[in-house]
Write a structure and sequence with these properties.
binds NADP nicotinamide-adenine-dinucleotide phosphate, Quinone Oxidoreductase, Chain A, domain 1, about 20% helix, globular, 2 domains, six-stranded parallel β-sheet, 10 helices, about 25% strand, alpha/beta, binds zinc ion
Length: about 350
């Protein structure tokens, strides 16, 4: 057992504050990691605010973790002290069920263990995330950061990146795919960059007129203002795939209308009730609506390697841990350009 500094909350809506937490003594297949950077996901804010009623307190968020190996258990074979590594949204799963065998660990039939707010499969203790100096993680859930990736900008690939990459791969995004990205925040801006890298024709659908220029700079071919009824009407029936990153329950009907034949809207943002969906909008054009949850370990490593090869990196605003509460306020105002990343060197006694 060791202790380290972290940032977290003891109750919903409280500001994040310094905490001292314990990390377990290394088990045989554990990797100890000193955390250098951690991305800030909108889910972190959902948990801190207990938006889903499932938060266990104290809560230490953070699941876009980049660090260096400081020690390994005796059974660890793939990592050595000093290696540059990453940890994403999950730190354990049963590894024996059909989902795990098919590399879909987030859908483990016994339930995956999230990096924070989960229960350790052995000790039953609540997992604490990456807004901390150190973390201990089982080897299969540790990913390798390719040397060609700048570690400061790699964290957001572990959640924002993989969450949009998984449905893009699932739905075969390729040259010419007409891809729409709803919401230009952390997930959305990664969807634009990855979609462009795969050759898709990318349209950003935004509520923020001020983001149009940014969207184009990120590589988007078109920008559609969802608050402009005429523009929405003109865009009817025009997309093959739509990734909806809106972070709360909303009316998906105006977005469904934009899908062409066999088009699919994949919900990745709203993990809560939606307004009623009009069945006719699904029947017309044989449209589908689907969901997607983060991604498996193998696919996350594939994404890291793809981003290293194609130099696809998020646009990050580096912050000190002491700025985290202000960052949450800005996230609530849709003012993220386009992912906050905490420089963990700022976390000192
Ligand atoms: P974010 O950086 O805050 O971006 C969300 C964007 O959605 C905003 O920038 C805004 O873009 C748009 N938006 C916000 N409120 C809206 C509203 N009421 N109506 C329409 N558009 C709105 O958030 P994020 O980190 O990308 O996360 C997005 C959501 O995905 C969160 O709910 C998070 O919990 C969830 N998530 C899910 C998974 C998964 O596995 N499925 C994984 C990670 C995160 P514009 O200004 O362009 O309109
Ligand atoms: Zn996340």
């Amino acid at each position: 057992m060791s202790t380290c500094l972290a940032y977290g909350v003891h109750e919903a809506h409280a500001p994040l504050e310094p905490l001292r937490i314990e990390r377990r003594a290394l088990r045989d297949d554990d990797v100890a990691i000193a955390i250098d950077y951690c991305g800030v996901c909108h889910s972190d804010m959902h948990y801190v605010h207990n938006d889903w009623g499932t938060t266990r307190f104290p809560c230490v968020p953070g699941h876009e973790i980049i660090g260096r190996v400081t020690a390994v258990g005796p059974a660890v074979s793939r990592y050595r002290v000093g290696d540059r590594v990453a940890v994403g949204c999950l730190v354990d799963s049963c590894q024996g069920c059909p989902a795990c065998e098919q590399h879909q660990e987030p859908h483990c039939t016994q339930g995956m263990t999230p990096t924070y707010n989960g229960l350790d499969r052995i000790s039953g203790e609540v997992t604490l995330g990456g807004y901390a100096q150190h973390i201990v993680v089982r080897e299969p859930f540790v990913l390798r950061v390719p040397a060609a990736l700048d570690p400061r900008y790699t964290g957001p690939l572990l959640c924002a990146g993989i969450t949009v990459w998984t449905p893009m791969r699932e739905h075969g995004v390729k040259a010419g795919t007409r891809l729409a990205v709803v919401g230009l925040g952390g997930l959305g801006h990664m969807a634009v960059k990855l979609g462009v890298a795969l050759g898709a024709r990318v349209t950003v659908i935004t509520t923020s007129p001020g983001k149009a220029e940014d969207a184009r700079a990120l590589g988007a071919h078109h920008v559609l203002l969802s608050t402009d009824p005429q523009a929405m009407k003109d865009a009817a029936n025009s997309f093959d795939l739509m990734l909806d990153t809106i972070p709360r329950g909303h009316n998906v009907n105006p977005y469904l209308m934009l899908l062409g034949r066999q088009g699919t809207l994949v919900l990745v943002g709203a993990l809560e009730p939606l307004e009623p969906i009009h069945g006719a909008l699904l029947a017309i054009n044989n449209r589908s609506i689907a969901g997607s949850l983060i991604g498996g370990l193998q696919q996350t490593q594939e994404l890291l390697d793809f981003c290293a090869e194609h130099q696809v990196l998020p646009d990050c605003e580096m912050i000190d841990i002491q700025d985290i509460n202000q960052a949450f306020v800005r996230m609530e105002k849709n003012d993220v350009k386009y992912r906050f990343v905490i420089d963990m060197a700022s976390l000192k006694p």
